Alkaline phosphatase
Amino acid sequence: MRRKLWLGVLIFALVLTAWNAGLLADSAGARPEGHGKVQNVIFMIGDGFSAAYATNYRLYKGDRPTLFDQTLSGMIRTASADNAVTDSAAAATAMATGVKTNNDMVGMAPDGKKLKTILEAAKESGKSTGLVSTSSVTHATPASFAAKVPDRDDEVAIAPQMLGKPDVLLGGGKQFFLPESEGGKQPERNLIEEARAQGYQVLENRDQLLKAKGKKLLGLFADEGMAPELDRDKSKEPSLAEMTRTAINTLKTNKKGFFLMVEGSQIDWGGHDNDAAWAMKETEAFEEAFRVAVDFAKRDGRTLVVVTGDHDTGGMSVGGYNEYKNRAEILRNVTATGQFMAAQIDEKGSNIREVLKKYAKIDLTDEEVEQIRNAENRKLAINRVISRRAYIGWTSTAHTGVNLPVYSYGKGSDLFQGWMDNTDLPKRMAQAMKIEFKQK
């Protein structure tokens, strides 16, 4: 009798395990693995995104599982060649070339040697390529996959190098493609007209993006960075998910496959401003784009999706202020960035209560009103009041050097498990695609 009982328990346990495995197989985050050749790679970088952002984001959503939770696979070290705390240029260069460089350098080794990128290697193998970003497309992260300059701030020099390498280039930064005679930053060249001559379909708004038909796309939706997700005019500027979907649909027509890098740029910008609501809204937009990539990989069966950050920004904490609390969910009531709210406050600060009530649903105390009114930087003061209400702490307005989580989905995702350096990522992507990728 006892033997039958134990046999029944064992059978039940096996059935339960199989049932749970079936549930996971149907979930968005299941990680089908395989050692066969990967046709397509979608590499997604959440600028400034770390485990603290991922944790606060889960709480922001009401402590519900996220796509990040379901696809966690490893962790990376982020240090640059000359600093334990990297900037975006050095971090992106490491993840594009497999080589450490100094902060501020784009696509170059510390000695100035120009480096081959994983995007360029994919293109040489016959694949289509794309870069998508909510910053300027000439900003440090996208630039590191296609340009070579010693100083990331030289976006005028970066812009001409961005044409011709990616078949799809979507984001902000229109001013860097226009001549000074037309209000741009280029001394003489009109890079938009040059792009048209190279066969690019030029897009300037959301409607044009959604109707895009060309095989090569240049979408410049803002003069500089695109609008924060909290402040975005949805009738004019596309979302990161919409740009990602259009990029995939354009690139997938190449039978040899594609490489696509997608950056959620403004997670970082929210972190620099200690604006927890902005950072969480950008993380939400990034997850939506991640879901677009995973849904495609699910249907396609030959696509690898890899997601990570380039560094942590702001030293965000989960809880703080000497209390055992977190109320990240209240950030869902915030409908504008701190910089937008600060711009609505009059010089004397007589309408501070009204502005915070309207855009953050917060009834300020007298002490908080004075804190904002007397601050040298009202934007930062607003953000710190809101962060304190949410029990989200900050240690900096710059970057920190903590290790970052890596997420992966699809064929080849087994290559991205465990501890890695950020320089390992492009090498393993090349391994998955079975393409040659070596520095000379």
User: Anything to note?
Assistant: The mean pLDDT is 93. The CA atoms of residues 91 and 393 lie 24 Å apart. The first helix runs from residue 2 to 26.
